[in-house]
Design brief:
single chain; mainly alpha; Mitochondrial carrier fold; 11 helices; elongated; mitochondrion inner membrane; Mito_Metabolite_Transporter; MCP_transmembrane; mitochondrion
Length: 278
């Protein structure tokens, strides 16, 4: 999973002010991880990331298609309005992310483990299984959904860009350009989806990462931010509006190859199986 390199670098970059490390850009962050912790630490947290994407990607696609087919249906001419795509994409992303939140929480914490050790802090995680057990032991089942609200907010915005943008841009290309429903159309639509998803999702990604990785008290309450809104306000007040787009480039670099790989592969598999494309 080459895209995971950008995911790890992006998470470290977004959390700069949480762990109070010196400011570094995305490239400097990745180089610092390699220099200080080793090359393969860029893939630390890959296992829970795989768990998360199995649940997340499968769920969001199925829900989007079922809602499009049975609830927010296309008009009689076959057109599917942008607002329906947007609502459907956001809803699908929220449900999928809620189910995938435990694995996402472990992934984020594992990505930060090497930096914690370098800063002299005690290790929290030895393996994904130990991480799940530790979180459950300290906070119960509810602890596995720490940060679920900003996570779902982020997923709603990302899928507003990814699912809705892919569906809408693909329909536009097929109806307005004369292109066929083939890999060229799928590539162009996926490029659009990745870029729009980065624009809509980066602010929520910043807030999500900071809320999920902040230190907590004995009762599991955050010590830096009261809630998502408080993190949002503090980030702008202390660092300016564009703090919400800190990590946009790695976010785009992460979502662009992911969208390209996911959508083109998914569509080609559907064609090989004789199923209808997305």
């Amino acid at each position: 999973m080459p895209w995971f390199f950008f995911s790890s670098s992006s998470s470290r970059y977004l959390l700069v002010n949480v762990v109070q490390a010196p400011h570094r850009g995305m490239v400097q962050t990745a180089a610092g991880v390699i220099r200080e912790e080793g090359f393969f630490k860029l893939w630390h947290g890959l296992t829970p990331a795989i768990y998360r994407n199995i649940v997340y990607s499968g769920t969001r696609i199925v829900i989007y298609q079922k809602v499009r087919e049975y609830v927010l249906k296309p008009d009689p001419s076959g057109n599917y309005s942008i607002w329906k795509s947007a609502v459907n994409g956001m809803f699908s992303g929220v449900v999928a992310q809620f189910l995938a939140n435990p694995a996402d929480l472990v992934k984020i914490q594992m990505q930060m483990e090497g930096k914690r050790r370098l800063m002299g802090k005690p290790p929290r995680i030895a393996s994904p299984l130990k991480a799940f057990q530790s979180i459950y032991g300290k906070a119960g089942m509810a602890g596995l959904w720490k940060g679920a609200v900003p996570n779902m907010q982020r997923a709603a915005l990302v899928n507003l860009g990814d699912l809705a943008a892919y569906d809408s841009s693909k329909r536009f290309l097929l109806s307005k350009t004369g292109l066929q429903d083939n890999y060229i159309t799928h590539i162009l639509a996926s490029i659009c989806a990745g870029f729009v998803a980065a624009i809509t999702g980066t602010p929520a990604d910043v807030v999500k990462a900071r809320v999920m990785n902040q230190p907590v008290d004995d009762k599991g309450r955050g010590l830096l931010y009261k809630n998502t809104a408080d993190c949002f306000v503090q980030s702008i007040r202390n660092e300016g509006f564009f703090a919400l787009y800190k990590g946009f480039v790695p976010m785009w670099f992460r979502l662009a190859p992911w969208a390209l790989t996911f959508w083109v592969t998914s569509e080609q598999i559907r064609l090989l199986l004789g199923a209808a494309t997305f």
